[in-house]
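lol forgot to send this yesterday, sorry. C-alpha cells for the thing we talked abt
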C-alpha cells in the first residue's frame, strides 16, 4: 500500500479541459524512483512499450530516463543507489524493479533565487547539490521522495495551466498540530495562506511561493483507510460524505478507468 509521499492526483478534465503548455512558473517534471539495479529493466520496458525516451543521463550520482506521458508532460525515472524502499507486487512489473515512490519534482523558473530563499528560509529546505542551472533542495535527512530541484531557464516562456500541467505540489506533515504551526509561520511572514481545508482523508493548507507555483501542506492522518479496508482500495469510487448526494452526476462525468490485472 502507498504511503504519504506516494500519491498522485489527476483532475479528469477530459475533452472539456483547456490544453496547458509547459514553461516556467510551473512544476516542470515529476520524477519516480527505482533502485540503480533496475535501470536496464526500465530501459527495456519503455522500449518494449514503444515509449520514446532520452537517456540514461547522468545527473549528480543517479541515472535518469526522461519521457512524456500521453498529455505531453515530462516524466522521469531516476535510478539510484540511494533507493532502499521496499518494492510492491503486481502482475506486470517484477517486485524488485517496481517504482518505489516519488524521487522528487522539478520547478522551472526564469530566475530561481526568490524561490530558493523562500524554500530555505521559510520552509526550512536545505540546499544539498548544485550544477549550472539546477539547485537540489531537500527536507530533513533527504533521500528519495524528499527532493525538489529548482531549474533555471532564463529564456523559457512562462507555462500555461491546463491539461498536461501540474496544478500544485503537496508536502506532507505529521498531524494537525504541525500543520497549524506551519500555517502560523507563513502568516507571520505575510504569506497569503488558506484556512485548513478538510479533504476527508487529510487536512490541507495552500499557498504560493514567489514564482507563483501553488504549494500544499497536507497531514498524514486520517489516511485512506477511514472508509474501506486495504483489500478494497482502488476498486470503487469513494466520495466524501458531503459529495455522496451527487454520486450519480459525478460518476457520469468521470472517464472510465481500467485497473491492470
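and heres what i got for the seq, position by position
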Amino acid at each position: 500500500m502507498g504511503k504519504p509521499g506516494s500519491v498522485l492526483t489527476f483532475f479528469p478534465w477530459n475533452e472539456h479541459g483547456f490544453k496547458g503548455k509547459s514553461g516556467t512558473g510551473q512544476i516542470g517534471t515529476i520524477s519516480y524512483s527505482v533502485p540503480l539495479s533496475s535501470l536496464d529493466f526500465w530501459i527495456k520496458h519503455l522500449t518494449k512499450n514503444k515509449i520514446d525516451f532520452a537517456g540514461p543521463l547522468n545527473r549528480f550520482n543517479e541515472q535518469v530516463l526522461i519521457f512524456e506521458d500521453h498529455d505531453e508532460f515530462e516524466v522521469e525515472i531516476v535510478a539510484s543507489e540511494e533507493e532502499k524502499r521496499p518494492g510492491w507486487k503486481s502482475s506486470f512489473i517484477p517486485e524488485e524493479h517496481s517504482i518505489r515512490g516519488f524521487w522528487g519534482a522539478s520547478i522551472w523558473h526564469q530566475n530561481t533565487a526568490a524561490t530558493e530563499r523562500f524554500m530555505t528560509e521559510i520552509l526550512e529546505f536545505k540546499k544539498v547539490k548544485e550544477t549550472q542551472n539546477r539547485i537540489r533542495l531537500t527536507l530533513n535527512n533527504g533521500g528519495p521522495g524528499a527532493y525538489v530541484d529548482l531549474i533555471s531557464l532564463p529564456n523559457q516562456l512562462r507555462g500555461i495551466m491546463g491539461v498536461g500541467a501540474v496544478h500544485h505540489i503537496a508536502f506532507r506533515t505529521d498531524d494537525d498540530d504541525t500543520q497549524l504551526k506551519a500555517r502560523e509561520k507563513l502568516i507571520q511572514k505575510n504569506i497569503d495562506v488558506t484556512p485548513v481545508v478538510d479533504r476527508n482523508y487529510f487536512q490541507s493548507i495552500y499557498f504560493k511561493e514567489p514564482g507563483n507555483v501553488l504549494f500544499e501542506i497536507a497531514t498524514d492522518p486520517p489516511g485512506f483507510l477511514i472508509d474501506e479496508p486495504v483489500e478494497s482500495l482502488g476498486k470503487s469510487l469513494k466520495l466524501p460524505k458531503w459529495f455522496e448526494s451527487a454520486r450519480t452526476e459525478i460518476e457520469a462525468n468521470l472517464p472510465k478507468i481500467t485497473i491492470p490485472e
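DSSP finds four helices and twelve strands in the chain. anyway ping me if u want another try
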